[in-house]
């Protein structure tokens, strides 16, 4: 049985897809999809030998070697252009994810769907998609075992007629949701304003409060500047949360 997080990612893969799961670790996602008859072909990509071996064993044990190809390599280097329709990348930081997508741009020409689950740095993934012609189509937030995860989907060919998801807007006639804030919190997630989203940002506030308290002990100019920036960040998040609640 998959974790709820991986199940939600699996649920977003259209039937009959050819997928590449990059950073597949034990290849749980592609083997689940193949067993379920949901994919016709899969690549499990891994850059590290340990997880690569684990993925190879899992695919062999499941008798899925004809459907899933396990490949050792960095990011999208493991796929040929046109080989897959869907790419899933889950369980790594947003900046690594954005750099994998950026380095593998030439592999994305025939890809029709990206399903991305960054563990942190979601804003960097949204920004990469926005700046590289991908349209964010959905965002999901879930909590499992005390951790909060976001799952983003995106499709190619953002057109100039699409509404700008990150256009800054005013909440409650006073608080401005800036582009930067929307990239951080997620335009659909903010719209939905779920309890999990509020909990996520309350816990981010607690972390920032702690950092600010530590910086308050320092007299260094750099620390003072940092404390000021964090203070502004805290104020902005509080204002937005007050409007969302
Ligand atoms: N995708 C699985 C999941 O969500 O449960 C596994 C996530 S695991 C925490 C992250 C995996 O990404 C690790 O197995 C790591 O070796 C792999 N990884 C990290 N950087 C990578 C890269 N540049 N290319 C391919 N895999 C990478």
Automatic annotation (TrEMBL):
Protein name per UniProt: tRNA (Adenine(22)-N(1))-methyltransferase TrmK
SUPFAM superfamilies: S-adenosyl-L-methionine-dependent methyltransferases (SSF53335)
Superkingdom of source: Bacteria
Alphabetical list of Pfam families matching this protein: TrmK
